[in-house]
Design brief:
Elements (H helix, E strand, L loop, with lengths): L63 E2 L76 E2 L17 E4 L6 E3 L1 H21 L7 H29 L4 E7 L2 E6 L6 H26 L7 H20 L7 H14 L2 H29 L12 H33 L5 H4 L4 E4 L4 H11 L4 E4 L5 E5 L1 H5 L15 E3 L5 E3 L4 H10 L4 E5 L5 E6 H13 L3
Cofactor: Zn(2+)
GO molecular function, one term: peptidase activity
GO biological process, one term: proteolysis
Amino acid sequence: MSGGSGQPRSGSDESAEHHAGPQAPGSARPGRNPDGGTPGTPAPASGDGAGQPDDTPPATAPTASGPAPDPTAPTASGPAPDPTGGTRPGDPRPGTAGDGAPPDPDAAGGGPHRPPAAEPPPPTPPRPAPARPGTPGEGHRAPARPGGKPPRRPREPGGGLLMGRPFGVPVYVAPSWFLVAALITWVFGGQLDRVLPELGAARYLVSLFFAVAFYASVLVHELAHTVAALRFKLPVRRIQLQFFGGVSEIEKEAETPGREFVLAFVGPLLSLVLAGVFYLALLPVEPGTVPGVLLAGLMISNLIVAAFNLLPGLPLDGGRMLRAVVWKLTGKPMSGTVAAAWVGRALAIAVLIGLPLLTQSGALGSDAVDNVGMDTVMDALLAAILAAIIWTGAGNSLRMARLREHLPELRARNLTRRAVPVETDTPLSEALRRANAAGARALVVVDAEGTPLSLVREAAIVGVPEHRRPWVAVSGLAQDLTDGMRVSAELAGEELLDVLRATPATEYLVTEESGEIYGVLSAADVERAFVKAMARPS
């Protein structure tokens, strides 16, 4: 089997109100709070340990840990109430708290204690987020780096043993391949014992060579999909060889039904071509020899791969071809997906029931079996596994189609939280007071000229007890801005998710095309919108 789909990362379902024009200083634009919280009042942390927000984004949500808060204050993490909106020209200018702050009850000597702003505390170590189904191994949190250095991008998710990068696409061999290679070696070795008994124990070496050559043919099948996708400017995440064949993970859909048809058909076509090549190579070879048996086996196996993948049901290549035809006839890609997915489910039931019956009756070339033996049990088990893979793949195709249908609803402008600018030495309590007064739910640290420097992390705010906030500067709770953390307010849908995936973080600065600050986008908000889009019926 082959194919692939881009699985955009998680996001949020609460959209903020549309941002209005400039405001007069001191005026507060009403901001919606999706969580029902009060701006500036942290929500209690949940979970069994500090550092876990209430809504932890799934592995597909871009997340990152920033620098830890002031060492003098205990920290815990959890989502602060969700603010909405963005700063506009005319918002109150940042400043610092006046003199006369009450003495720090925790400081020795009773005098006011200013937090050290010279050196930020060490970065929080990266912590992986839970994985979302269909998305293998992604979602590591990237630590923010002091000194304004951009965070290191997360390591490319693997999927087994890296074998190479043809056409720039990584090829992995999953651990399950070694299991199927051993199974093929054992089964094919038994057949060789009947055809070439003089080989003795060496038949297993010949069988192992056949298993490797067969999966090399599967790799050629997948490379055909990959080359076609790259030709159509579709990114390919990786190729993985696994238990039941290979998968080319193509991250975006084809733009037209014609391209979708070609993208699906080239795989089985290459398998048919390989079968023809092995047949031509078999003609001059003497039958009953090792080369003859190997070439005949590879020819037959490639024919089986081509025929199986041409079955008209998702997630097989034939299902994608059927989807392209229905898409062309109806003009609706979702209609094509629904039709091909339900045919795929019917195909799964047919495989579950029909394959053991065909094997037992001898219709597939083996001797008919009247009683139930080990071979019958193995055939039934194989049919059940194949049926489960087809049924699950068809369901995943339906879910992905529903997601892509609702992706345009994820707009950075609608999901952005309103923010107020504050200078680096502003006490946290004063910054939260200004945010409450302005109806904002995010803080942007700026310099004297108003240029944004960093974003105050909501998880860090929650970790500072209320009585400590007058002595904790916002700079100690902020994550330095990098180029990837600046997001255009015009981004939407899959383009927005691609930008967030490229630079995992917990918050992003949203700007207008002119460069003005529009607000702050939280990865948790995008996650909720993403989940809501998945749950909404088509």
